Amino acid sequence: MSHATAIALLLAATHTVRHVGGVLLIVIGVAVWIGWPIIAVRHSEDVVKSHARLGYMIGDMTITGPLCLASGYGLLQDYRWGSAVLLLAVGAAAFDLTHFLVYLAQIHWPQIRGRALPWSAYLVATLATLAILGVIAWRELDVVTSATGGAGSGAYLTLVPIVLGALGSGGLTVWLLRAPPSSSSPPAP
Fold first, then answer.
1. Number of domains present in the structure of the chain
2. Which residues partner with 112 through β-bridges?
3. Containing structural domain, residue 54
4. CA angle 66, 91, 169 (to 5 degrees)
């Protein structure tokens, strides 16, 4: 294989990854814009009474959703600004979507055939979302550092908060969604 062919294959693979990442970010942005209104209508009293939930809904609808849509569009169109917006979108989405998925677990939504999903389904969804966002960011950093001649290993340190957030979110989700301890002893007098 010639050097030119190797470069062409690398660029094609990079282009494909950027496009897949762009599509996934657009899907996340649309899901946020569709999901929150459904939750807000079905659980309006719960959302409005909780300043945290109301704040997350407003943040998701006005920051996370638009950032995901903008960065997804930027990556699909191969705009240079797509990379910068991507890193903002990944940070916002990792934070807000983790909270949103924990909230869905707390209200037991969605239900399939009238039964709530097991807590492990929400944990898997949270970790999968964070993993997907991390992979998209990692690949984009790889593209940017390759194209610019390398930004040094410090560029990859931007992924440390995502990894730590994933581990912390997973542990916190397991702890918060665990079954309450059974009380087999009678209450104290």
1. 1
2. 115
3. 3-177
4. 120
